[in-house]
Amino acid sequence: MKKKSLIWTLGLVAAAGLVPVFTSDQYILHVCVMILIYVGVTVAWNILAFGGILSLGHAAFFGIGSYTVAILYVKMDVNPWLGILAAMVTAALGSLLLAVPLLRLRGPFFALATLAFAESLRLIAIYAVPLTNGSVGITTPPTQGFALISFSSREPYYYIVLAMALIAIGISIWIYYSKMGYHLRASASDDEAVRALGVRTPRLKLAALVISAALTGAFGAFAAMYLFVIDPETNFSTPLYSIQPALNGIIGGMGTVAGPIVGAIVMTPLGEWLRTTFSGTTQGLNFVIYGVALIIIVRVMPGGIVSGMKKLYRRFRPENRSDGTAPDASGPIQPEQELANSEGGRS
Amino acid sequence: MGVKKIAKRKLVRLSALGVATVVALPLLMGCSTAASSSSSDSIKIGAFFPVSGSLALLGEESWRGVQIATDLRNAAGGVADKSIEMVFADVPDVNAATSEARRLASDSDINLAVGSYSSGLSLAASEVFARGGSTFVELGAVSEAITDRDYENVFRFNPAAGSFTKLQMRFITEHLAEELGKPVSELNVILAHEDSAYGQSVAENAVIDAAEAGLVNFSLEPYNAKSTDLSSTVLRLKAKAPDIVIAVSYAADAILLGRQIRDNGLQLGAFIGTGGGHSLKGFHDALGEAADGVYDVDFTQIHVNEEFTPGITEFTAAYEERYDSLPASGHALANFTGANLLFDILEETNGSDDPEEFRQAAQNFKLEIGTTSSGWGFSLNENNQNELADVYVMQWNGDQLETVWPEQAAIRAPLPATPFGV
Amino acid sequence: MNLLVQTLVAGLLLGGVYALIAVGLNLIFGVVKIINFAHGELVMIAMYATFWMWTAWSLSPYISIFIITPLMFGFGVLLQRFILQPMQNSSPTIKIFVTLGLSVLLQNLALVLFGGQYRSTTFPWAEQNFSVLGVTATYGRITAFLVAIALVIALFYLMKKTLTGKVLRALAEDRETAGLIGIPVKKYYLVAMGLGTAMAAIAGVLIGPFQSVFPLAGAHFTLLAFVVVVLGGLGNMAGSLIGGLFLGAVETLAGTYIDPALQQVAVFAVFIIVLLVRPQGIFGGSARNAEVGLK
């Protein structure tokens, strides 16, 4: 059985790698690149969610990543590949500013602090004109080449971001099954108990924050190179990079390994499809539908698509019941419990 | 341990499912995009405007101007016997602009696109078109950066931010200084601007132009574009006691700034808006008589010398018939004029949208000032910026924004009035 | 010196608006335990209602407030009954995203219905100046400020003295126990949500005469209102008032003396610092609230 699913996975990764062989449509490849950027950011966001921590401020790390690579490349002539590595470092350092809130605040309070943090960074990026060019933003030069992460066609971008996304997923799976992940998940349901057993959960949470921020910074840096234009309104955008990854995670299944991947794969094309289908009709209609869809999806599948599908799977494949009902000990953590048990504003 | 393995296997399978979706998706989407067909008797042009999100209002106005131009031209027989087909894309933010530009650029029938009202959106969309070798024509965004990137196939037909600030400085030195009875070097001028790309790029130009104009007492007063309260800005202005305030504002902040200047009794010799919110009818609706006397430098508005702007009456009539109101700002007219210039150039290429042919035709195309519906002429400089597109000084009077300066475009002389009723 | 006084006055008047919006959120956040990201949109709806009643029927905001407030109470009840109540036992995270969806929906519904125009309720009386010792303000702003204070006192009284208030406080502290001793939790949640929405509506009507309305007019207030609620303490109405005034003052002081472009940064910085130093809010929430946590 294990071999079988390994073969499946390898086969599908290979198939994902072959997408550019099936289609050379630059727009479709572009959507796939955007999906993979969102897969990456959502998976990164989800590493905090393993510990039951809700961040609504990942735009901060995304933006720090974007600006690091852009400033280093455009103003200091540093190679963008090095820039991506630097972006991971700066995003990780930036995340340390949230270390104290992370350890002191619980549940919604931490979420609000991250939201305010990302907004502050956006305003500072607008203000710091000499460094960031302010709202006008930075445009990367059109010089092409693999060394400069700049190509005329989408295919190379696709492979680069696919590799990055696979690495992020790999890290996420590794953390999930490591001792760290086990303790994180346990602390999500009962932090006190885990600490009583002598596990230093603050240290684990901090590690999760730093890893999550560094990965997000890497994708922010890639997006900067891919989208050419870096400005505070976009790269520190709360709706695009704080809310959307969290939304993808929630819709896919927060705190699971597959959830964020599924969420990003479903939600990115949905937004894209709604916009292209309804543009030119009534102003704003696409977002009305998006809003309604969001409410319905979250209400019908509060545990996310992954657990929703599992339920369906169980219902329609009774002969697999023994397999399907395998204890969920390491399955998705129940976010319901996790925040319900949070101890108010402080811990 | 066994439990863990089973769960892991399930997860692996689920992630495999996710990957399957990535694979399936392009194939599905491929079906939907393949449907667009080509036809040799029409010219397909991409059109990017934000009609949802925070830029929806003026984005929509801009798009209306392009639609009217297209429909009127098609009704008159099209371009070189071909009809014009605008392929619209809503671009509420920069990511959407990149996405949509990618989508339209991948349609092999689209080699030419127009846009985009906002500088940020224009930079993103034109970058995709230019790097792909297609043509992008900006009809409304003002940031200098758009034409400063040395792309051969990125054009701008409307005036850039520099035109606004140059005219403002000229108006101050050639008219207001005398009216206020102070030498230029003693005038205390403050530019209050919001901090989006629009405000910041105008401010950047203003600093240079003010220095050139000999305004030694010139300073900036930035504020946050999303502020719901501008008391601090107004109090700071009050403390500096300026003779003239130039403002660069979007819609809500223009109204707020005006109201708070009035409420705080800030006396000014003159107040000059820079398009945006100061051209909107909503600005006058909100402030009533207090808005009278406020100057505004912007694209051509409908209350202008009609001999200077041939074709404007047809535009206004068509707009009113279609939308049952007068244009909300000058953006519809600017985009209307720009789209018509584009069609005239396509007439020169005999309807070909080949980027190289288009570029040569555009560079050879010349029109005198005062021959288009905005009063603009046409002549591209080395950056493909239309040098003969210009802005004018308007003044609010009643609920009309009347063109007052320079003389060839004016319908009346500028009237001395204290802005905001103080 | 005069500049300082004027800045402070402007700040307190602005803070009154924040407090007005925040008390409603405090009820929803504190009692129903929902992080309502659509709170600003509730304000926006009331602003549109004010504008239309003024434009269509010449109803002054200070009359239409008596029509809009009950209507919005009903709207809040409907929201709770049909959208939020079915998810009562879901995690707070899930509920956050329902309210986010609601916020996107309402913003764009306004865009679909009314377009992107910026509309202003121009009620002349509210725009008249009022000047004491060189410090000026408009009647509209002063009214909003005074109503905010009156409303907070009324709510304070409601929560302390009336049965409804006592039940709401019990719910705020411990829903399960309250349910066990026979309090009809669902019914009182409807009341709390209705009241919270009505408060947002009052805020929307009162700021109508000096803030123009457009689809995104309320969006900016949501995060600010959360900041105020957290500063003042969950479930603490007086705290919300003082928190609002404090934030208003921080914003204008930072604007006047540091840089207007950074005034929001100052607000968020104060927020994060207060969260760290006193997570229960400057003035403390109801004590047990902090212990029980947010369900």
Commentary on this structure:
Chain C: This is Branched-chain amino acid ABC transporter permease. Chain C: The chain crosses the membrane at residues 62-84, 96-118, 138-159, 188-207, 261-278. Chain C: GO terms for molecular function: transmembrane transporter activity. Chain C: It is a multi-pass membrane protein. The complex is a heterotrimer of chains A (347), B (422) and C (295). Chain A is 75% helix and 1% strand. Chain A is mainly α and 347 residues long. Chain A has one domain (23-320). In chain A, helix 3 (58-76) packs across helix 11 and helix 8 packs antiparallel against helix 11 (201-227). Mean pLDDT of chain A is 85; it is low at 321-347. With 422 residues, chain B is an alpha/beta fold. In chain B, helix 2 (56-75) packs across helix 11 (331-348) and helix 8 packs parallel to helix 9. Chain C has helices at residues 2-32, 39-57, 61-84, 92-114, 124-127, 139-161, 163-173, 175-180, 185-207, 219-232, 237-257, 263-277, 287-292; strands spanning 129-132, 135-138. In chain C, strand 1 (129-132) and strand 2 (135-138) form a beta hairpin. The N and C termini of chain C lie far apart (48 Å). The interface between A and B is large, with 79 and 68 residues.
What is the topology?
The complex is a heterotrimer of chains A (347), B (422) and C (295).
Chain A: H1 2-22, H2 26-50, H3 58-76, H4 80-96, H5 99-104, H6 107-127, H7 129-132, E1 138-139, H8 154-177, H9 179-189, H10 191-196, H11 201-227, E2 229-230, H12 232-235, H13 238-252, H14 258-278, H15 285-300, H16 305-316, H17 321-324, H18 335-340
Chain B: H1 2-34, E1 42-49, H2 56-75, E2 83-90, H3 94-105, E3 112-115, H4 119-131, E4 135-138, E5 154-156, H5 161-180, E6 189-194, H6 197-212, E7 218-223, H7 231-240, E8 244-248, H8 251-263, E9 270-273, H9 281-287, E10 295-298, H10 312-323, H11 331-348, H12 355-364, E11 392-397, E12 400-405
Parallel strand pairs in B: 1-2, 1-3, 3-4, 4-5, 6-7, 6-8, 8-9, 9-10
Antiparallel strand pairs in B: 10-11, 11-12
Chain C: H1 2-32, H2 39-57, H3 61-84, H4 92-114, H5 124-127, E1 129-132, E2 135-138, H6 139-161, H7 163-173, H8 175-180, H9 185-207, H10 219-232, H11 237-257, H12 263-277, H13 287-292
Antiparallel strand pairs in C: 1-2
Protein name (chain B): Leucine-binding protein domain-containing protein
Keywords (chain B): Signal
Signal peptide (chain B): 1-34
